[in-house]
Amino acid sequence: MATYDLTVNGRAVKVTGESDTPLLWAVREQLGLTGTKYGCGAGLCGACTVHVDGVAVRSCQTSAASAAGKKVTTIEGLGANGLHALQKAWIAEETAQCGYCQSGQIMKAAELLARTPKPNREQIVEHMDGNLCRCGSYPRIVRAIERASREG
Amino acid sequence: MAHVTIDTNVSRRGFIAGSAGLSFAFAFGLDASTKSSAQAAANTINAYVRIAADGTVTIVSPALEMGQGVNTSLPLIIAEELDADWSKVKVVSAPVADVYNHPILRTQMVVASLTLRGYWMPARIAGAQARQVLIDAAAARWNVGAGELTTEPGVVVHKASNRRLSYGEIAASAKAPEKLPEIKPDQLKPVASFRLIGKDVQRIDIVEKSTGAAQYAIDATAPGMVYGTLARAPVRASGPVSFNEDELKKMPGISGVFKFDHGVGIAGDSIVNVFNARRALKAQWRESPGSKTNSDAAQRVAQEKLRGKDVKGVMPPNSKPEGAMEGLAKAAKIVTGEYATDYVYHAQMEPHNCLAWVKPDGVEIWTGTQWATMARDQAAKVAGVEPGKVTLHQMQMGGGYGRRAFVEYVVDAVMLSKAAGKPVKMIQSREDDLANARMRPMTAQKIDAGLDADGNIIAWRHLIASDTVVPYLYGDGRWQAQKGFDHIVMAGADVGFYNIPAAVSEHIYEERGARTAAWRGIGAGHNNFAIEAMIDELAQQAGKNPVEYRIALLKDPRAKRVIERVAQMAEFGRKREGTALGIAFGKLGLPPIGFSMTGTVAEISLDRATGVIKCHNLWCAADVGLPVQPKNLVAQIEGSLIFALGSALKERVTLTNGAVDQHNFNDYQILKLSETPQIHVEVIRSGDIPLPVGELSIAGTIPAVANAFHALTGRRLRNAPFTPDRVKGSLA
């Protein structure tokens, strides 16, 4: 058991665990940031997507230890000054149904817009593919990203 | 703060409300203190509406939210009749109590897309009666006739004297009437004056679901809580004979290992440690009736059985098979179609979980369930307390689709908490969630259509060889009461909208000991595939265009219209390069409550080398009766089309020795964004009652794809999902 120093949503925090403790469970169960979701535990669904130094990662496949000293951003920290443009767009398009996958979807989309502010449809599909949504909100995910890109 | 508490109570003061014939009553209580009001609401009075002095209208929603939007759309109906100011409405989830039972299902349950349809009249009457009470109270205060008063959102108005009282002002000082005003259906708001229904308000959960703040059961905590999981036996009705208990107990962070009849429970200080121990579990499981089931072999047995001469199945109540059998006997020609569908898994994104806390005097549970009454009663049974001693916190469900009508994960959590002596958050890993899949049954189907000399259909016999669902979900009592008719398996098997003079459907039981459930779309997901593929074959044999053939054969004008409309939307007659279109009719409902309907068109292409079908477009014209929340309704239709397309192209559970062969989303793949077609939905309003929507558009998708494949290749796909192997097989 070890303790790791992380910066999560701009805050210096300590989490404990074995060297392979997933970042997912550290942020959810130790830091109480439950917007990041457990879906598959195997990097197959994207519900646990967070940013580590601005890169979208599957937090179930990322150890807390490997994030030590890095900047971790979860859905709770995405909109530093109120809602992020993507969150506003997600609300405007009423994208969520059950909502469980949507934190991961938004975090994945945020990486896209940070790199490519004006993505075309193909770029959106390519970037977002593999973040699963069982409710079938995909058409609205695409529309929300297009809206955020437009209204930024 | 004073509260006006308005309730609907089935048992207390009965009056018959509305044409649905639902017994429904209404009580009204006015409490001097918040405390007594809250107690009353939780126990005996069962409020739907509370109005606080500050004007806040609290609507208690008996619906259970799993993404379908009912926690907005059902309170909206109450608010409409109450003439509430929606911006002042607060929605809270109802506790488990008989008063909140679904009026048709008679239990607190959200299934079959029946929530709005079932609560429609009771919700309107609850709102209207609350409004009348406020009007009467204002009339008494102003000493004018109630008939002189009207309402504007949140305000009672006396136009003659230009006086106004807000609902909050009235609630602050009103006295409860001795006898409640009775609301007759003709006193309800005319549908044409609705200002909330049909106009789209923002879903109440949309902000929290876009910020990560929404609370699901997996997010719940309790003081002193530990984590747990329960490894259920891989096969239904099996359990552990022995397992490596000592080894697991020594693993880091593990505080308890428990042998239950049906599985192995593990408790520990973190979910990481619990899952590590779960992965280290080595158990021997006892034999059970399903232990020898191999799904591929079982399917071949079922298909062969349907080809037998004397095969007979269980028919829906009031079936008249004689006409169909006579018609087939005298038919000039019989066209036979064989179809099959595999087991499919719900794959809700939130794996099953529940936080349970067994205390000396009761049980507290945090979970997401489609059947709150059953969750409460099962928790009580396991804990050995009265149901009244169970507090159920209904959380957002991370998907349901029929799966969370089962409550076995609540039972598992309560067992773990009882054994551990602590609150336990029980989480199933995705692998265990899939290993414990309660699947849509596997079906083999055969349709015989008898034609007269002119090619008219005179008889229809649809055989469905499948597992059962009802005894597993509802128990033997209900199974006996239904005389062996499995309404879940057989849903959607009727062809009553077609002009077919004699038809019968029969369920041939295939008891394979598999875990089964209703899956989004219920039986229509598999049965309508066979029906609409068969109709397509009959059109082809008759040399008719599939759109015109259906329009001629459908009796119901609404049914004709959805087909006509979707054909227009898709420009069905336009020839495409490299792609082809297929069409299907679909429906959802029951004769006494009405049917919603769809016309669905799929446009597909095929990579002949790989056998991969690509769906480019799905068009859907949906007749939904009265759309309550149109934007959300379209989302449900889009979602169901995508959900069903997964089961058309990819989704498949297989069993070896009774156990699920698939493990996670690597080998049970659901539809991805890149596989999602362009979707075009048109909603048709056809009446003043909301008809089933949430799973409506499942029914037409598989047959539309299969029929498009025939249009493209001249070959029929008969076994869903249409995997590359099967596609290549059909082309060989």
Strand content of chain A: 15-25%
Query: Largest contact between protein chains?
Result: A-B, 57 and 61 residues
Computed structural class of chain A? alpha+beta
**Named CATH topology of the largest domain in chain B:** Aldehyde Oxidoreductase, domain 4
As residue ranges, the low-confidence spans of chain B are: 1-46
Q: Would you report the number of β strands of chain A?
A: 5
Provide the number of structural domains of chain B: 3
What would CATH call the architecture of the largest domain in chain A?
Roll
* pLDDT < 50 runs, ≥5 residues of chain A: none
Mean pLDDT of chain B: 92
The largest sheet of chain A is:
5 strands, mixed
Radius of gyration of chain A: 15 Å
What is the straight-line distance between the termini of chain B?
A: 76 Å
CATH-scheme architecture of the largest domain in chain B: 2-Layer Sandwich
What does this structure look like?
The complex is a heterodimer of chains A (152) and B (732). Chain A is an alpha+beta fold and 152 residues long. Chain A has 6 helices and 5 strands. In chain A, helix 3 (85-92) crosses helix 6. In chain B, strand 23 (580-590) and strand 24 (594-607) form a beta hairpin. Chains A and B meet through helix 1, helix 3, helix 4, helix 5 and helix 6 of A and helix 5, helix 7 and helix 18 of B.
